[in-house]
Q: What sequence folds into this?
């Protein structure tokens, strides 16, 4: 009787080991996938904050290089460059919501009421090997649109508000 119990116990231990070996890769992929999802949400939120802060700057300072510098400095952890930030100005009646066609409905010269459009974009790369096989790069983009409230007089002031 005791011998049968010992054999049954050994079989149960072996069965548990096989079940563990089958389920642990699935659990690891789920945990790493959640880690990548968290990283993607962080990257998108940082990108959105960068675009919002840059458009707030563009409301009062219409210098494109300064607006891009604000966007870049707001998203230091993402490693943005000026090629990741598009800035354009459109008429207040414009139906455009991005800078893909800057020559359409331009607001030149910029006037109070024109729209300052800032688009920040980035290619997010997952670190989980299984996920990166299916999606090697995920494009993230955020656009912020604000009306120009103040025209920066470049010749009379060193800095704009």
A:
């Amino acid at each position: 009787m005791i011998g049968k119990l010992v054999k049954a116990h050994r079989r149960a231990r072996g069965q548990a080991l096989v079940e563990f070996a089958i389920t642990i890769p699935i659990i690891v992929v789920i945990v790493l996938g959640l880690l990548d999802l968290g990283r993607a949400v962080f990257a998108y939120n940082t990108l959105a904050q960068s675009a919002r802060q840059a458009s707030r700057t563009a409301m009062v300072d219409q210098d494109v290089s300064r607006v891009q510098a604000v966007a870049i400095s707001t998203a230091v952890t993402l490693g943005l460059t000026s090629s990741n930030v598009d800035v354009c100005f459109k008429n207040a009646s414009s139906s455009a919501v991005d800078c893909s066609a800057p020559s359409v409905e331009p607001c030149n010269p910029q006037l109070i009421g024109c729209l300052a459009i800032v688009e920040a974009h980035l290619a997010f790369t997952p670190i989980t090997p299984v996920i990166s096989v299916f999606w090697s790069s995920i494009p993230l983009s955020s656009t912020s649109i604000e009306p120009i409230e103040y025209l920066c007089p470049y010749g009379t002031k060193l800095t704009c508000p």
In short: The two ends are 89 Å apart (CA to CA). The longest strand covers residues 115-124. Residues 13 and 149 are 72 Å apart (CA to CA).
